[in-house]
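Supplementary Text 2. Reproducibility record for the structural model of the 523-residue chain.

All settings were left at their defaults, and a single model was retained for analysis rather than an ensemble. We include the record here because the model underlies the residue-level annotations in Supplementary Table 4.
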Amino acid sequence: MSTTDTSQTNTGNHVRIFDTTLRDGEQSPGASMNLEEKMRIAEVLEGMGVDIIEAGFPIASDGDFECVNQIAKTVTKSTVCGLARATRADIERCAEAIKPAKQGRIHTFIATSPLHMEFKLQLEPDAVYQKVIESVTLARNFADDVEWSCEDGSRSDHDFLCRCVEAAINAGASTINVPDTVGYTMPREYGELISMLMNRVPNIDKAVVSVHCHNDLGLAVANSLAAVDAGARQVECTINGLGERAGNAALEEIVMALRTRQDTMPFSTNIVTEDIMRASKLVSTVTGFNVQPNKAIVGANAFAHESGIHQDGMLKHAGTYEIMTPESVGLNESNLVLGKHSGRHAFKEKILELGYELGDNAIQDAFKRFKDLADVKKDVFDEDIIALVDDEVVRANDRIRMVSLEIVCGNVHKEPKATLEMDVDGEVQSCTCTGDGPVDAAFTAIRELFPHGARLQLYQVHAVTQGTDAQAEVTVRLEEDGRTVNGQGADTDTMVASVRAYINALNKLLVKREKSAPEAMTA
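Retained model, structure tokens:
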């Protein structure tokens, strides 16, 4: 493992991007990911220039350990990081998980606010202080690159916080993260907190100061930027702002704010911004969390102009209402690219153009889906192919798969009927069920073939592109014993998309069942 370069850590103008989509983002209710999905996202994050990928929480489950370990074996350009509480078992498990990494990091944390120390940890400040030293020292024995976080740092006593930060650095931490764990602080206040640490901690120049902001008051990005302005040189964030409760600071907003406002914030990152839309769509597909239309940077309306005044200005000069170009974040105008007569070579070239690298088997499966789509859809757009490929690739290792579906419904049929054939762990089964409507009949058939106690919490449909022949993208949310999972499916047939989404959610539920939830796992 390489030692982190701490020269000019907090004085240069480069900001490191620490992506925690695979760890903190997965803590969103419903956002469970399996190994293949995490590997796919890690590959995209590495390709877009993310400096540090927090791949998971190895002590949480064998599945989490395997994800971190496999990503550590595969990723070579980004640092691969695992999270650990301030305990020997956590740190040793994390060290084992990241061991294969070309560049590995152990990220250990403990709460430092009076509220958390008294009621959650039930420890006196001096005991917490000793745990800071012990945990960082232990982590440093396993890794050259150690990050320490003071959970609920924004609500911590300043004197105690300074004392802990100084001790962590002396013990070997090369990155100090100061989280706004509950999204409580304000930008000016947070900037002053970072400035205070810069001025009062005598050895602060030996570490990179990092920030990790939650969005409970909608201020995660603003707080992160205020911290950068005050001297922080690492920002912890997620694609689409994914994360528990109201989410985390959104990577795309942080990066594009720094790129767009060089006049007031002359800082740089390594992010290839043209890959932002690709990463956003992949994370949305994998997690089942649709991006809201008015979401900054990656929302469907982010570069749409409906107002007559706006349209007039845009026609005269794009800069009148656009502060960045759609192309700068990888959003290109939808073009008719392929049709029913297009061959495998053209399809493969288009896949590469859209940023995907698929194996021969995956190309074959995706091409078959494309030909089926082209037979029923007049115009095939980039968005259609992206939805198709994401739907195919990220579901490649699902235990449950739809084989065929037939629906009978309409006002002449009193009871809508669904005949479903499913592959469950390699065994094909079929049944016919009725319901209050076609969706209910189809979902009843799924429950018949794969009995479970999960409750349907959300059923949502939206079109991938315009037109009556557009692919439907369906989101389904299931809840079982306090666990929630989201599933997505896409098809020109809304019922097929619905069944795909439900089955995808069931596959995620199987993954979720294997995961435990260790106490105090958020930093």
